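Hi U.,

Before I forget, here's the chain from the pilot set. I'm dumping it here mostly so it's searchable later in email.
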Amino acid sequence: MEVFRTLSTPLEGNYRWLAAELATLHYAAFCQRVADRDGGGHHREPLSQLLEKVSSRPPSLGCWTPEASIIFAGIKPPGAAPGHIASDDWLRAQALLSGVALGLLDDVELALDVDQPLLLCGRALSGRLSLQADGERIVVCEADGTRTHWCRIAERDGAPVWNDEQAPDSFVMRDGRPAIRLVGEGWHASPWIQDTFRVQAPSADMAPQIEAALDLLQDIAPDHAAWVCCLLKEITPLRRPAANTIASNSSALRMGGIDLAVPANALETAEMLVHECTHQYYHMASWLGPTVVPGAGSYYSPLKHCNRPLDRILLGYHAFGNAMMVFDRMAASGLQEQIRIRWETVAGYLRELSVPLQDGAELSELGQALFHPLRARLAALEFREPVGMNAPADTGVAVLERV
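Structure:
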C-alpha cells in the first residue's frame, strides 16, 4: 500500500505513473464487464477490438474520462432499483463511444439505438444514432437528421482531443494547446446521475477564469498546478449561489470532470480546482477498496453539521488539506490578506476533521496511505498559524460541495 501515498499530495512521488496505471485498469474492467454480458450482436466485434486495444497499448491518463466512468454508472447506479440499471444495448453503445473518444476505435461505423442519453465529447446523445469514425473525424447523425462533426485537433495523454467543426467547443488552453473542455449539462443529463446542481452552458469568460487560476497556481504552487491538470478533462459551470458563496462539485462516477462556480476570481477558482481535483485522486484510490476498516464509526463533520461516515471525513480532510498547502504558498507569496478569511475557515474545518483521523485506528492501509503523508505536510507548513486572521471562522466565502 506504500505506493498509494503518492495520491496523498503531489509532493510524495510519481503520482502520474500510478494514475495512468489505475485509469487504464479501471477502464479495462468496465469494458470487460460490458463484453461479458450475453448478446452483443453486430457490436461484438468492435467490443473485442476495443478490449484488445486497451490491453495492448501502454497505460494512459486519457482513460480517466467521463465517457469511461459513465459506463460504470450505468452498470450499477447508486441506490437504483434493478429496473433502473442500464440496458445491455446502452452499455454496449456507451463502451463503444468511449473507445471512439479515446482513439481506440479509429475506423468504425456504428448503428446505435438506445432509450437513454449517451455521452460523447461532453454532449448527451439519445435515440437512434449512426456514427462513423476514422481516427481524424467523428460524424454522428441523429434520427431527426441533426449531424455533428468532430475533428481531431490535438492529442493529450495518448488520446485525441476532439472539437465540433460546426459549433466549436470552448477549451481552457495550456501551453498553446486545448487542455480542458468546457461543457454544459451533458454528463448531468444521464438518468444514472442524481443531483440537483444548477449547471449552465459555458460562457465566454469561463476559460479566462480557469486559465487565470491555473496561471496563479503555476506561479506560486507549480506542483499543485500539475496535480490539477493531470486528471482534469472537462468542467461544467455552476451558477454562483451568492456573492459571498462559491460552489463546486465532483463525483466518483465522473472521472476527469468537475463543476465550478462562475463567476469567481483567480484565488477562489484556484481553491476550487485544487479541492475538486484532489477528490479525483481519492476516488481513483477508493475504486480499489475501502479507505476505512469494517465497522468504522461516523463522526461530526463541520461541512455538513452532522455526523458522517469516516470515509467522508477523510475525503474532506484530503481535499481541504491540499487546499491549505496551496494557501501556505500563497501566504509565502505575499497574499496573506487576500486569503485571510478562507484560510481561517479551512483551518477550522481541518481541526475538526482531523479529530477522528488522528490515531488512524479506523483507517484501512489505503486510508492511512492517503492520510499520514498529508498530515505530515500540514504540520510542516511555513505558515502553520493563520497570519493576522481575527475574523470568525464562519464568515466570508463558503464552499458548497458534495462530500
